[in-house]
Amino acid sequence: xxxxxxxxxxxxxxxEFIEKAAKYHPDAIIIDLEDAVxxxxxxxVRRQIADIVPTLDVNCLVRVNNDPxxxxxxxxxxxxxxxxxxxxxxxxxxxxxxxxxEIITRLENERKLPPKSVRLVIMIExxxxxxxxxxxxxxxxxxxxxxxxxxxxxxxxxxxECGFSGLAYARAKxxxxxxxxxxxxxxxxVFANIKDDAALRQDCLYSKELGYDGRALIHxxxxxxxREIYTPxxxxxxxxxxxxxxxxxxxxxxxxxxxxxxxxxxxxxxxRARAELSES
Length: 280
What we know:
Layout: E1 6-11, H1 15-20, E2 28-32, H2 42-52, E3 60-63, H3 71-78, E4 85-88, H4 94-110, E5 119-124, H5 127-131, H6 133-137, E6 143-148, H7 155-160, H8 168-180, E7 185-188, H9 197-210, E8 214-217, H10 223-230, H11 234-251, E9 258-260, E10 263-265, H12 267-279
Parallel strand pairs: 1-2, 1-8, 2-3, 3-4, 4-5, 5-6, 6-7, 7-8
Antiparallel strand pairs: 9-10
């Protein structure tokens, strides 16, 4: 998963949505076998998705059902060299993650896939998951990303029995624990109001300030707004280049702290600038 990823959910039982999702240019799509699929259709849709994934011209994740009745079957159906990652919802225990890792490892071996080629994205959707987030994010080197289930009236808010603003601590803790665990890309959750672009922009700005790298979305119209906010634009990248150039010139003269365009700059700021440039 690249650093500033914008992902688009598509319902697993809506083939037409899956096949046209690439034209909206998300960094990846998430085919949902969990909440978007009626219980009585789960096994049928799973088989259909196994056939669809190899035909798609877009990076693809599949959100499986984290339920003993479906989990193993979902993994066996979709793990292939066409799949970028498995998204595992409602994660609460390290044992759950390690069990999924073992199944994927077996399937990679049986299907002659490169080791660890199928990555893992874990979703934090309960109070217990929030409390244990650091341990969960550290449970497997297959984990590429942690996703905070921050959607309004979604699973996390329901489990916490709070208002939308009451998610503030959980969103901050998930980001902090995931960063401490060394997770490469930390994603915020979906924004529920499809038509309120101003509110989406405000929430993305807040999310970015918290430290999130990108987010998952449920509607194509959200992609351009989210990408604008989470991805450093040309002006910001040019600012970083000028900063590094000025700093390196000073450094060659034995100076490691300078004033650059009104701001104090030392090695800490240069480290941030180089990181942003390397990820863009």
